[in-house]
Amino acid sequence: MKISILQPKIERGNIQKNISIIQELVNNATGDLLVLAEYALTGSLVLDENADTQEWAVKCDKAMRELSIPKGKSLLLNSLTIKSENIYNACILLPDNKIMQIKNNPDNTEISAGIHAGDDISTFQFDGKRIKILICSDIINMDKISTLETDFILFIYHFTPENYGKHIANLIGISKERNLPIITASLTSDKNYGHSCYVYGSTVVALGNHEGIMEVTI
Q: What is the pTM of this model?
């Protein structure tokens, strides 16, 4: 299968502008599964503590419905979403509009903003491949996550210049220990560093800090 990691250059908080940028990347991607970073529509909540999460969730839902997904392709998009009146940080598969993974370990900013936690890291099956989706801080509980029947890990994140080195070292360590590829989706903004990457053992292949598409056949 071919995976297209979409790395938009977003304007934090400007959902309408960001959705148009993402649509252009979607149109140019050649993968079967297209993947976006955490908070790709809005920018990270931890970098915008005054954000209205309810408003974000409603506007993001509207924006997702405006996206046109080419026939035969699927887009895994991370966003705040409302389910049973609770707000979650979730990865949603479009065009099916199906929640594939909810963040299990919201950070303190998210918890203070009323975001609820998921309760499981499930296996996402796509085109015959078995995939674990880890959203941001869920990776801190890696020792509790089984990957025995997993072909690769998707890490849905948002690198910054300050955290990039630490997280790459951690991803290399996990990949070596589990003998699994890890594909990380990031984004670029005034505070984000891009560098979406493919990690397998000590091999790291990454985009720079610019808008683009990284395509991986696996």
A: 0.96
Residue 61 CB: number of other CB atoms within 10 A? Answer: 16
Query: Cα–Cα distance between 161 and 168 in angstroms, integer?
Result: 12
Question: Please, are residues 191 and 47 in contact by the beta-carbon 8 Å criterion?
Answer: yes
Residues 6+ apart with CB under 8 A from 99: 81, 83, 88, 90, 91, 92, 93
Q: Which domains are assigned to the chain? A: 2-217 (3.60.110.10)
| The two structure tokens encoding residue 210 | 């610019």
Q: List the strands of the sheet with 129-135, edge to edge.
A: 123-126, 129-135, 152-156, 182-185, 197-200, 203-206
Query: Quick check: 33 and 1 in contact, CB under 8 A?
Result: yes
pLDDT band at 127 (very low <50, low <70, confident <90, very high): very high
